[in-house]
Specification:
- Residues 1-21 form the signal peptide.
- It holds the Pfam family Porph_ging.
- This is GLPGLI family protein.
- The chain is built from 3 helices and 15 strands.
- The longest helix has 19 residues, at 241-259.
- 17% of the residues lie in helices and 43% in strands.
- The protein has helices at 2-17, 46-57, 241-259; strands at 25-33, 62-68, 72-77, 86-90, 93-98, 104-108, 113-120, 123-130, 137-145, 148-163, 172-185, 203-209, 212-221, 237-239, 269-274.
């Protein structure tokens, strides 16, 4: 497998250095998120958990655009009529999802770094850090995505999760192992992909990460009428990903402390997810 990987990378580099050196494009993706709730509480029945999943499912269907040159890319949500936070409720359960469509992710494959615009608690942040280089396992399995033959690649990732039950004073940090599966097209020899995914000898057209997925809907290569322009975000307080995570965790702890003993009791359930 390592020999095949080196061969693919070698072919990819050769193509890059010749006819495709100026390749640019836009890729339109549809994102689908099926959020799994981990709750160890007798306060919620299986029907209520199923209800929460259904409430969450619709607001998390979003459209995104990946704009790219050979070495840089922008990732941004497509503008919609219902900008800002989305809230869905049913009976005694409220689920709100927050996020800002204007937030942009910039990736640079030469420096293997990224810059991410992020709004959180009414403040603008600019997260700058190194891209995570994953240990991709390439497969010979293929499938057709539009006009392109896509190849399968996978890697496993240890992620931080949080678990909360009614008798707990605060959320418990746990570890989960998730296998990420993507499909990439060597016919489009750029190492870009949706969101933070990158590093394969071809454009990533589809991603499956637990309950999250990205599906390629349309590809525009070397658009002459509307040339691709890559923007580097500059607005917001500059932080590393670790520093930003610490701010998020502190805010969560503060909110948990404020909620304890407030009117509404354990029967009023609310799940808030930052976008």
């Amino acid at each position: 497998m390592k020999t095949k990987l080196l061969l693919l990378v070698g072919v990819f580099s050769l193509i890059f250095s010749t006819s495709f050196a100026q390749l640019t494009g836009r890729v339109y993706y549809q994102a689908s998120n099926q959020i799994m709730i981990r709750i160890d509480s007798a306060e919620m029945s299986p029907d209520e958990i199923t209800q929460a999943h259904e409430i969450m499912k619709k607001p998390w269907q979003r459209d995104f655009i990946l704009s790219f040159t050979q070495t840089e890319s922008n990732w941004q949500q497509v503008a919609s009529l219902d900008k800002g936070a989305t809230s869905q409720s049913s009976d005694e359960m409220t689920i709100s999802l927050s996020g800002r469509e204007d937030d942009m992710l910039y990736k640079n494959l030469v420096t293997q770094s990224y810059t991410q615009e992020q709004e959180f608690m009414g403040r603008d942040f600019l997260i700058r850090d190194a891209l995570a280089v994953e240990d991709w396992v390439l497969s010979e399995e293929t499938k057709q995505i539009g006009d392109y033959t896509a190849y399968k690649a996978t890697y496993s990732q240890l992620v931080d999760s949080r678990r909360f039950s009614a008798g707990m004073a605060e959320m418990e940090a746990v570890k989960d192992t998730v296998q990420i599966t993507v499909w990439y097209a060597p016919q489009i020899p750029v190492a870009h992909g949706p969101e933070s995914y990158f590093g394969l000898p071809g454009l990533i057209l589809e991603v499956h990460n637990g309950g999250r997925a990205f599906y390629c809907q349309k590809i525009e290569l070397n658009p002459s009428a509307d040339p691709v322009e890559i923007r580097v975000p500059k607005q917001g307080k500059v932080l590393s990903s670790v520093e930003f995570q610490a701010i998020q965790e502190e805010s969560i702890r503060n909110m948990e402390g404020q909620y304890q003993g407030k009117p509404g009791g354990p029967n009023r359930r609310k799940v808030s997810i930052g976008g």
